[in-house]
Amino acid sequence: MEVPPAPAEPATDDVHAAEATPDVAADPDAEAAPVPTAVEEPVASPAESAAAEQAPVPEEEVPAPEEASPLDQVAAPEEPAVVDDASLIGESVVAEDESVVMEGAAWRDDGDDLGAVRADDTAPSPLTADADVTDADAPADAVVDAATDVDAMVDAEPPAAVRVRGVSKSFGATRAVDAVDLTIPAGTFYGIVGPNGAGKTTTLSMIAGLLAPDAGTIEVAGIDARVDPRGAKRAMGVLPDRLRTFDRLTGRQLLHYYGVLRGLKPAVADSRASDLARAFDLTEALGRSVADYSAGMTKKIMLAGAMIHSPRVLVLDEPFEAVDPVSSAVILDILSAYVAHGGTVVLSSHGMDLVERVCTGVAVIVAGRVLAEGTVSDVRGELTLEQRFVELAGGLSDVEGLEWLHTFSG
User: Fold this and answer.
1) Is residue 252 in a domain?
2) How far is CA 27 from CA 16, 24, 34, 43, 49, in A?
3) Would you place residue 163 in the very low, low, confident or very high pLDDT band (cuts 50, 70, 90)?
4) Short-list 266, 298, 262, 259, CA closest to 282
5) Is residue 143 part of a domain?
6) pTM here?
7) Of 170, 362, 370, 396, which is the most exposed, with the fewest CB atoms less than 10 Å away?
8) 229, 383 in Cβ contact below 8 A?
9) What is the CATH number for 331?
């Protein structure tokens, strides 16, 4: 049986030409056959066709393939949420008496500046803790953000034991303290000096939480006294100007009371009371009523009460007043050791020699305003502190008109 020959296949170019362009000239009234394309293209005129053949055909632009980032090979860490500065260094911050430990970094008080940051080589980088990559592979923007935050922390104000900003206090029409600013560094003696009635005691009373300021803010050990007044008070030990206490108690009972009031266990309070009494030479007086103490002994027992809970800051109003030279030397030794281990002593005194010899910083307050504040050497300049104080306070008063005092007519 013969197989009929297969029909000849039309040329490929002819087929495409037939599909692409209908024969309009053959039947101008007939509708063009539907073309299986998404959009029918208009038929070009002979002139347009000739121009199109002469025009160069632009090459089709092919988008360049995107270069693969090395980070595409590794799972990128999740972008950290917006948190505070400390959290960018480490997620947890644990406060200790003499150091603050962070994950990924350690802040320590080893005699260096309190703002110094020491990297912990053994701790994982907080930027790559969630991904198995190295610091070099971490996203550049994350590294820049972290570096910027560290720079901001370094440029910020240095840590201060007490920071006073714009504090004012009035009693009736009298402006006792007027917009006082103080920055008291941690681990130092700081003196507040001024003439009688200048506002020193009022300023110390507001720092200690005994008076509420009319305006301004006070921070103690980083605690805003307006937000957490109890927390600020817990960080302080206070020796007020007027020695009012429960003087019907014995010295031992009074120290026990102060210790328990500050949260110590009774046994710990009693043990510390004995230690302080021995240091202040009050052991034999512990069994006696405080009402029978001399002014100097009362000063020492109340100073011991201010120190019994080991506060970060001591606020002392005239701590050496009415104290004999031997007791003054003992008190100064105790306070010096306290400061050497990171404590801060804020004191007022009329003894310019003592302030100049002991204190690192000083503020001179006159008529409720701070006229000079800074290191002792900066405040005094080429003068002694007493000379500078007299200069700022207005000099010596006029003594004319007292000639009768020299007649001895008594």
Assistant:
1) yes
2) 20, 6, 15, 15, 21
3) very high
4) 298
5) no
6) 0.61
7) 396
8) no
9) 3.40.50.300
